[in-house]
Amino acid sequence: MENKSLSPRTGASNYQLDEIDNQILELLIENTRMPYTEIAKKLIISAGTVHVRVRKMEEAGIITGSTLNVDYSKMGFSFTAYVGLYLEKTGKTSHVIAELKKIPYVIVAHLTTGQYNIFCEIIARDTHHAKEIIFMMDEIDGVTRTENMISLEESIADKKRLMHHIFK
Fold first, then answer.
1. What are phi and psi of 18, to 5 degrees?
2. What is the pLDDT of residue 145?
């Protein structure tokens, strides 16, 4: 079988993924809560081997944690919007990011090139609540203006597809 090893992009380790590591990652991508014993049974290896390999991938920075996916709409937060922020100076970026971190409804913030300095995803209860959040963002020192887009529907939300593609 062809070895499609990947090396970590960061970190001091030169850990190279082999086919067993790839298979472990694929199973964890499908279900981050899958017990090591179940992974071991599926791959016909020991649970200790799974544990050691996962720990080595964590130490190498390949695995950086596990994720819990929450459906915010079931908790009353069904409004998603994207907000592009224009800054008066790029030197204000760190300050603006620090202030955005204080607004819990800002769930993603990217430093970007192009039209916006920072591009954010927010989750709100409704349009009125989104307006309040956007006004909070607009009041941050260093933000000159915002531009907003409403999400009508999340059509693709599958980070697993890329990992599956990498391993194929």
1. -110, -175
2. 96
Structure confidence at residue 144 (pLDDT): 97
By residue range, what is the domain housing residue 52? 19-67
Nearest Cα residue to 89 out of 119, 109, 118: 118
Per-residue pLDDT at 4: 39
Distance CA 106, CA 133 (A): 8
* Domain shared by 62 and 78, yes or no: no
pLDDT for the residue numbered 162: 83
